[in-house]
Amino acid sequence: QVQLVESGGGLVQAGGSLRLSCAASGRIFSINVMGWYRQAPGKQRQLVAIITSDGNTNYADSAKSRFTISRDNAKNTVYLQMNGLKPEDTAVYYCNVNAWSQNGFGDYWGQGTQVTVSS
């Protein structure tokens, strides 16, 4: 089993910055794609950014030029640096990991961390 622990959410004013972290633990053999998704009240969960094991990234249009995803493979950790935050970025942010573990290949989600941007 793979566990994901997220941190870094909070309340920030518009224009501010936050850095989210997500650490994966357990009997992990390797991690393929790591990513961040978000879900605002009354809306579907949507992709924010993903990063592959060799560092290739993909961003939602809303995140391009403001957010940066990165990962530390030695620590099985993915980060999301969010700059220039807007009220519409308010959502619960979820970490997602595709990993090989002793249980085989799996898709894992974190518990979510709240990001609130005030105007």
Provide an overview of this structure.
The chain has 119 residues and is mainly beta. 0% of the residues lie in helices and 63% in strands. The protein is built from no helices and eleven strands. The protein has strands at residues 2-7, 10-13, 18-26, 28-39, 46-51, 57-59, 67-72, 77-82, 91-101, 104-109, 113-118. The strands form two sheets. Strands 2, 4, 5, 6, 9, 10 and 11 form a seven-stranded mixed beta sheet that branches. A hairpin with a 4-residue loop joins strand 7 (67-72) and strand 8. It is elongated.
Short structural description:
This protein is mainly β. It is built from no helices and 11 strands.
Architecture blueprint of SSEs:
Elements (H helix, E strand, L loop, with lengths): L1 E6 L2 E4 L4 E9 L1 E12 L6 E6 L5 E3 L7 E6 L4 E6 L8 E11 L2 E6 L3 E6 L1
Parallel strand pairs: 2-11
Antiparallel strand pairs: 1-3, 3-8, 4-5, 4-9, 5-6, 7-8, 9-10, 9-11
Number of helices: 0
How much β-strand is present in the residues? over 45%
- Arithmetic mean of pLDDT: 96
SS-based class? mainly beta
Query: Outline, from the CA principal axes?
Result: elongated
Number of separate strands? 11
The end-to-end span amounts to 40 Å
User: What are the segments in which pLDDT stays under 50 over at least 5 consecutive residues?
Assistant: none
List the secondary-structure elements in sequence, H or E.
EEEEEEEEEEE
Q: What gyration radius follows from the Cα positions, in whole Å?
A: 14 Å
What is the helix content? under 10%
| Major sheet description | 7 strands, mixed
